[in-house]
Amino acid sequence: MTSTDRDSAHRAHLDRLQQAYAELLERSGFDAVLLYSGHARPHHGDDQESSFSAFGHFVHWTGAPHQQHDWLWIAPGTTPRWFYYAPTDFWHLPTPPPQGVRAECLDPTPLAQPTTAAALIGAHPRVAVLGDVPADAVPATATLNPPTLLHALDELRLYKDDYESDCLRLANRYALAGHAAAREAFADGASELDIQLAYLAATRQRESELAYQNIVGINAHAGTLHYQHYATTAPDTLRSLLVDAGHRHAGYCADITRTWAALDADPLFAPLIEGVTAFQQRLIAELAPGVDFVALHQRMHHYLGALLADTGVLRMSAEAAVTSGLTRAFCPHGLGHSLGVQVHDVGGRQHDASGAPLPPPTADPALRLTRTLAPGMVVTIEPGLYIIPFLLAPFRDGSERQAVDWDRVDRLADHGGIRIEDNVLITAEGHANLTSAPANDAR
Q: What does this protein do (predicted)?
């Protein structure tokens, strides 16, 4: 998109939200809604605050994931009003006023001091207040976080318009630049911390601006799914690197994972990476409206079982590997999740706007998306293959012991694991891979 096209798409996005909110408020019996961004809280016994990310429904309108003490007043038939906290302060740089389309469409009003829901609502009846707001701070005429309205708004966020998919595409592009820098740093023998710093430099982000805490795991650390540390020195022998890292653009999150083999990797490891990448692409090729994501997740396990059998890690059929539970020991997480202004975005486990629960299968409790795919959804596709000793331990002494080549498993243990993850938009015709989209737009 050109900048002019992007502005037009942004206006259309805000018009869509205003129309949808008007319909949902009428259906829910409210005259207006007040969204609170939230605010950070100090650590217990300290004056330092925890990290902060704004309420997703507030970010959906404003694209401001880090602004605190802000409110957004939305009433049908009037321009939404954004009360943004901008105190006169010598400790911190004052918050600049919203610019561009946001200023044009959201009527920004500065707040010199934090204010309350009661002060903004005044005598207005039938107002819904959404966000992390104490119940005793909401007047009796208002309703705090009504579930029916929240479920409907979660459903609204599940479907992305052209503006949102463009933001996600841009976030992906900058995240890919970070992944390229991470791979180059690893090839030069960098530590996990140095790889993280190279990623931040390439994506032009501070850690506090990341969509989530990056995962940078060398060797066995790649087998901890949400590995949370950055070793300051590199191991003497480099075998593998897994980087799960993203970027945020106008509030929208990229979530990409890549895995690489080092020169000292076991000869089996690179073919396993190629195999996971190949069946990840097969799964992406199947994405289209009407596809049951639970069934797609189950096909992932069959593809994984076939790869483990073809590479000699297992001495059984793919069907037997799935039935025995071995594939779930090698990959205990779900195939993917919804993506948007939150990394694990809302609406993935409900039937529809009613909010009726749509839980994952008993065998797959970590599956975060249980919906049938429809145009406008953006999902991650992230199959994995890990050597997690305590998950595999029961099979060493069980009836499947002879069906596993434990020598190969043990050779791979200090490689940790493999995950390959792309972000994909479901379209009316099928899908568009936002992670592999051509980089032909200006930021």
A: Splits dipeptides with a prolyl residue in the C-terminal position.
